[in-house]
Amino acid sequence: MSEACRLVFSFSTFPDLLGRPTVPGTKDGLIKAIGPADAIQKMFSEETFEERIDCSGKCILPGLVDAHTHPVWAGERVHEFAMKLAGATYMDIHRAGGGINFTVEHTRQASEEELFCSFQERLQRMMRAGTTLVECKSGYGLNLETELKMLRVIERARRQLPIGISATYCGAHSVPKGKTAPEAADEIINSHLPKLKELGRSGEIHVDNIDVFCEKGVFDLSSTRRILQSGKEMGLQINFHGDELHPMKAAELGAELGAQAISHLEEVSDEGIVAMAMARCSAVLLPTTAYMLRLKQPRARKMLDEGVIVALGSDFNPNAYCFSMPVVMHLACVNMRMSMPEALAAATINAAYALGKSDTHGSLEVGKQGDLIIINSSRWEHLIYQFGGHHELIEYVVAKGKVIYKK
Ligand SMILES: N=CN[C@@H](CCC(=O)O)C(=O)O
Ligand SMILES: [Zn+2]
């Protein structure tokens, strides 16, 4: 287990926690104190609170962090689920113009308002499932106009909604029709990234991460390298899709470039795993995708044994329609052979690390953001054990010290 993992548990089961005292200047949404109820009671006896929650017999856990999602899109793909059940592979559908390309066509046609409304509903479903920080990608536009439309939608949610958002530019999610991968990479580097830089400077759109789908038949290793390198030079964290369907040496590339995270990794090499551990590059594993597409499972045990920081993501997208990190943790335990403490760490502090936010998010510590969930059980493991039972178990979701969902 990584060093980051251990932090979670030293703070997760105290009987009481009080936040947001109504003292001028202290409504910052950060955790003020953690400890036994009577000690906390004494410490804050003079203060008044907006809300007190009696957590006797319950568990307080850090808010869940979803390290990989594609939540802004239009156009249903439920018909593809039927095709996959009948034996079509992800790439069969992609090559036939379905998959990402289908979603791109519909997302290009959708209005910003329409995209925002469906995105907002999706975020609300994530919050109800305990997610307080989520990574959100663009990537169903591919052209500058639609990529910017998606990023504006993400920016609006970042400003208006209580859930934390880490925004990712994923203009290299697929190669647009009529272009080769190197041509698409040129356009991204010479036109998309300079525009993002300008909008970042003027404060219109804030982007945290840069992503590329590095895959055979999508972006090759050298185009991936060029795009990620350019993104890094403008201050973005590298966080990309690699080694999913074919071994691409994406892990080796990510480690070399100083990537913060690489997602998928079903086909990662042994050398890639070692390189990621050495570079402190986290692995964002996506149990829903391997399950949905019947792929071989990523080698979570090998990664953990080699010291890789393993994080989890729902990969919510029209291919893997899952909002729930408790379900993701359950799948990680059963299909990837992770223990429940490893899965919880992967869905909290390590996922926060994958987003470059483990100093402020992902564990319950004084001075960190007051993001937490309260579950109606004295054993936290029920959140993972009760497959699909999280709606009954999660009583409160708190973000920045404010209740954002109450059952
Ligand atoms: N693999 C690439 N991207 C997504 C799928 C996106 C889609 O199929 O729309 C993923 O992470 O699973
Ligand atoms: Zn993805």
UniProtKB/TrEMBL annotation:
Q: Which CDD domains match?
A: Imidazolone-5PH
Pfam families (UniProt xref) = Amidohydro_1
Determine if RNA-binding is one of this entry's keywords: no
Under the heading InterPro entries, the entry gives: Amidohydro-rel, HutI, Metal-dep_hydrolase_composite, Metal_Hydrolase
| Top EC category | hydrolase
The record lists the membrane-crossing segments as none
**What is a single molecular function from GO for this protein?**
metal ion binding
- Report domain Amidohydrolase-related positions: 60-402
GO CC annotation terms, alphabetical: cytoplasm
- Give the enzyme's EC designation: 3.5.2.7
Catalytic activity, as annotated: 4-imidazolone-5-propanoate + H2O = N-formimidoyl-L-glutamate
Top-rank taxon: Eukaryota
Question: Which pathway does the UniProt entry assign to this protein?
Answer: Amino-acid degradation; L-histidine degradation into L-glutamate; N-formimidoyl-L-glutamate from L-histidine: step 3/3
Q: Which GO terms describe its biological process?
A: L-histidine catabolic process to glutamate and formamide; L-histidine catabolic process to glutamate and formate
Question: Which metal ions or organic cofactors does this protein require, according to UniProt?
Answer: Fe(3+)
State the UniProt keywords alphabetically: Histidine metabolism, Hydrolase, Iron, Metal-binding, Zinc
The record's section on NCBIfam families has: hutI
PANTHER family listed in its UniProt record? IMIDAZOLONEPROPIONASE, IMIDAZOLONEPROPIONASE-RELATED
Please state which protein family the record places this protein in.
Belongs to the metallo-dependent hydrolases superfamily. HutI family.
The entry's protein name is Probable imidazolonepropionase
Provenance organism:
Zalophus californianus (California sealion)
Q: What is the lineage of its organism?
A: Eukaryota, Metazoa, Chordata, Craniata, Vertebrata
